[in-house]
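> forwarded from #structure-qc
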């Protein structure tokens, strides 16, 4: 796999695209080395959080960090923090990073590209003989994907003090192993896990590079884009309850069909977000029908509505409107409705000043700069609660992600590193 990925990356790349000390071949080699860890039969990545695979990938990157002259430590949550000292120790650091864990049978760019791009900035500075004024840190966050316990962003939540230890200790993975047992297997301790919380120096900045995992950049034929904000999800768990009955003997005008009501809501949800915001989205992705018989009128349907936007006011108005629509539908079809909010995570917008700085950097590279909202969560979401946050998206072929076919050309990867490097230098 190493040779296959390495050769494919370089086959589409011209060495003349190297610039500002950034070396495409080094980036390709490192992406390919990480891809060897947890390689699946389908050619994908399987390095779930708190696994030996994630640990080995961290250890590999640590060796490169140390070779680049960075001091490296790991915290109680397993997050790796590498630091390059600046010329003025009094200044707050600039922090960049991502993750190296994956979903089962995922791709090779989601996470590792952000980590390696952050490290490539240090390598480029060494080539140029450049020393930043502000310290520069590269972070590998633990368990971003959350595949182990169906609960992600674990490392960044620990670092920012957003972990409830009692909730974490109650978790069990698919094998039945507890959170404590899983941590112990990789030499971490659940008792001290929350000690990873860090007090950040006032004025610190965070920047994360990540593949887009969508098609906007590809459709616009652009290599990189500016993330306008990270959408915060709110979930409704809705239960429509009618009356189950015989599909043959119950007249149509006598039915209290819970699925008909739920289906009308699903259809309505698709048209509601655009009324409130161009960046709002709403999805019904999970639906349970009871008793779920082919010849039985559905008596009970439970569904989850996932509502997201990058600004809280527009998201929250949409969230409440969906409940109002659901109540109207329930009355129309003579069924009852119960609503329970199960998730509420605050959106994290990117400041206009930060977006303007990123736009200028991308335009300096000779590209049109556009803004894209991130519907997916990232470690930047948590870091953005503590300091100024920015994100760069890099083009994803066909928008494919969390799949072995996930792909970003080396030319686009290198463009992303150049933009990241210029941005960090502007913060000095």
């Amino acid at each position: 796999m190493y040779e296959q990925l390495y050769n494919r990356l370089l086959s589409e790349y011209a060495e003349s695209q190297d610039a500002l000390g950034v070396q495409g071949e080094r980036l390709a080699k490192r992406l390919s080395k990480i891809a060897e860890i947890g390689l699946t039969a389908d050619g994908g990545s399987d390095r779930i959080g708190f696994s030996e695979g994630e640990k080995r990938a961290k250890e590999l990157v640590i060796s490169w960090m140390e070779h680049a002259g960075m001091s490296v430590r790991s915290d109680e949550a397993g997050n790796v923090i590498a630091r390059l000292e600046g010329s003025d120790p009094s200044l707050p650091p600039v922090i960049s990073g991502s993750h190296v864990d994956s979903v089962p049978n995922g791709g090779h760019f989601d996470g590792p590209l952000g980590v390696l791009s952050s490290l490539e900035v240090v390598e480029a500075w060494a080539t140029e003989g450049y020393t930043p004024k502000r310290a520069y840190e590269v972070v590998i966050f633990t368990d971003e994907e959350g595949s182990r316990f169906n609960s992600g962003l674990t490392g960044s939540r620990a670092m920012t003090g957003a972990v409830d230890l009692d909730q974490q200790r109650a978790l069990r993975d698919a094998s039945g192993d507890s959170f404590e047992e899983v941590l112990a297997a990789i030499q971490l301790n659940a008792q001290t896990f929350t000690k990873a919380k860090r007090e950040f120096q006032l004025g610190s900045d965070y920047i994360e590079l990540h593949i887009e995992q969508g098609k906007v950049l590809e459709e616009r034929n652009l290599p990189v884009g500016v993330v306008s904000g990270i959408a915060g999800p709110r979930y409704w768990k809705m239960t429509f309850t009618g009356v189950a009955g015989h599909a043959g003997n119950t007249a149509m005008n006598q039915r209290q069909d819970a699925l008909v009501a739920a289906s009308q809501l699903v259809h309505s949800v698709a048209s509601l977000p655009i009324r409130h915001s161009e960046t709002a989205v709403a999805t019904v992705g999970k639906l349970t029908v009871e008793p779920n018989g082919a010849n039985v009128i559905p008596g009970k349907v439970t569904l989850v509505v996932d509502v997201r936007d990058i600004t809280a006011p527009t998201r929250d108005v949409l969230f409440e409107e969906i409940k109002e629509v659901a109540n109207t539908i329930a009355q129309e079809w003579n069924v009852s409705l119960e609503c329970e909010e199960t998730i509420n995570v605050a959106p994290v917008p990117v400041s206009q000043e930060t977006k303007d700085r990123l736009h200028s950097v991308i335009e300096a590279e000779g590209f049109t700069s556009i803004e894209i909202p991130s519907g997916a969560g990232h470690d930047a979401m948590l870091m953005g609660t503590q300091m100024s946050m920015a994100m760069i998206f890099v083009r994803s072929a066909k928008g494919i992600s969390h799949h072995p076919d996930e792909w970003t050309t080396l030319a686009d990867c290198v463009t992303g590193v150049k933009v990241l490097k210029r941005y960090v230098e502007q913060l000095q």
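QC bot note: The longest helix spans residues 312-332. Residues 232-344 form a domain with the Alpha-Beta Plaits fold (CATH 3.30.70.360).
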